[in-house]
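Final report, closing paragraph on structural work. Over the funding period we assembled a curated collection of sequence-structure pairs, and we close with a single example.
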Amino acid sequence: MTYQLDAAEQPQPRRGRAGRPLGTGTAPHFGSLPLGDPTGGADGMRWRDQVDGKQLYPRVAIDRDVILTMSDGVRLRATVIRPANRFGQTVLTPYPAIVNINPYNRVAIDLLDHTLHAPVIGKALHTASASIDGTGTGLEGLTTLTKTLSGGVFDVFGINRNLVRSGYVQVIVDVRGTGASQGKWQILGAREQQDSVEIIDWVAEQDWCDGAVGLAGWSYSAINSLQAADKRPPALKAVFAVEGCDDIVRDIYITGGMPSAFIPAWLSVVNLLKWVPNPSSPIRDVLRGDTLRWAIDRIKSPATEISSLLWGFLTARDDRIFDDPYFDERDPQVDRIEVPTFTVGAWHDLFGRSATGVYERLKMAPGRKQMVVGDGYHFDVGSGYGGKFAPPRLDVLERAWFDRWLKGHRNGVDYYGPVTMLQQGGAWTSGPSFPRPGVRPQRLYLDDAPSGTAEHAEHDGSLSREPVDHLSSLHVQPDLRGAVSRDMTQVTAGAAMAFGRSFTADARYQERGGLSFTTAPVTEATTISGAMNLRLNVATTAHEAIWAVTVNDVAPDGTSTVLTNGALSSSNRALDPSSSTYASDGSLLSAHHYLSRKRKLPVPADEPIRIDVDLVPTDAVLEPGHRLRVDVYAASFPRYLTVVPDLIKARGRRQRLVLDPRHPSYLTFCAGGNW
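Its predicted structure, as stored:
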């Protein structure tokens, strides 16, 4: 399609600090972005050429010894990257600034920058990342991980030299209590959020900034970008957030009421990194007294949250293992964000629920909000981007986004998408909404009749249009097969994919310990899109039970690939109807459990109860001959852990799924076609 923005949409000249003019976008934009083209079409090629071609300035000047003093006196440390001429002299012209605030220590970011921009090594790494492809071999998972380098995410995460050379300033700040910054790490707490706003205000007032500020980041820095945006600081003009989160509890901390093995591992890494001093200015730090203040702060909080996490796991007496106000304070208020926001996610990311949740909660017109979701995990975000039928690289999208909203360039990025997804089992597509248009609520019932497709499982059952007409019980025991599964890859943020297809594409090993229920093969390509809920009628011989669930695409050769997953401990089954999602016919599509100490329910021994397992929203297509499968497990270690008091309640348990015509078990989802 060919388009030109209406006069009302044309960016007007803006004034920054001291009345300096900001980007005006005076040139009209004509584009040729085909409707539904995930590559961006001709515009996408222009965005890429702008990033890969000659930049406005040949070099950058980096100041790694910048001090920002917060309103409470705590001194944060930052790196400022500015454009420079061919002699390395800093350009005095003020430009928009892109801010990244993260806890992973600027020492690590500097090391990454030096490696990726080393004269020979850097180019070789980028070339190898783009060209080595182990698809279909034992190296498939490993090369998927290495392709992230050519996908551009490290430019969003760290120092983006090309972006700065094109006429931006970049500011990277160590979160308080981490890296070289003083204070106590709050893990996204209220004081840390106030820091973000004060950082934006400080940046906007500097001589090298024209008054316009953008926020960018990956993971933690994406979350605090969303947090800062919901405070609506006046200088903030746009956000580019890769794999952020809007519900930390349900995404990762206590999914289904159960802690994740990822959290203690991640806390340990950040706590270790915060003890590494920045070597860029050691003598000056000592003379200024910064080293002493930094050391005192580290001694006061040597391992932030580790002891409370351990105490909560052992005793269940710490509120941070429940959905507590501690988390309410930390979840971004996405519906308050007003600036244009570009979000990137993945179906099997640590923050899988937020991949689409953030976009849905943004209260702005499509175009001002954009969403790209890939079929991957946390560490491999951007892998394959820039390919023939894929979205542009993340650094290309970031540059286009900020050019549009910070400089006023009419480059067509607001016509991209707005919903671009890699459909599981299919290809990259762009469309107007998520879920996809044309899907409608469907219901499939769990049936004990054999499907003939899962004889390897603990039980081979069926998914059918009608509930069972008789009573039966199917027993299932906890085991450790979840350690070789997509659950394991998800909880390790994607790292386990290097170990082979059993960790990503084929769940048959894990299914040996589960109850499987499978449909007949579909006769036409069938789209599944949106939220899902699995209602189960279950019982246990103990006073607690753990239920883990996956929904899979089963190929004609028997390969069973997980599309989405979920879990719930029986005591956390209480539903919050006001926060749950229902289909137009009243069917429960997304169960929102309270997950609070006060709302835990007793689990009667050997008495059936109803639970609703909320599954991560997804988008997939079943090709003709493929089947849909539901797998039900009594555990999935280490994806879902059990706190010791609940483990004691569940000791010696025998869990069973009760198929009862009066209380049927069924999957509710949205799909096209007929089942």
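The domain at 56-342 is CATH 3.40.50 (Rossmann fold). The longest helix spans residues 190-204. We thank the funder for supporting this effort.
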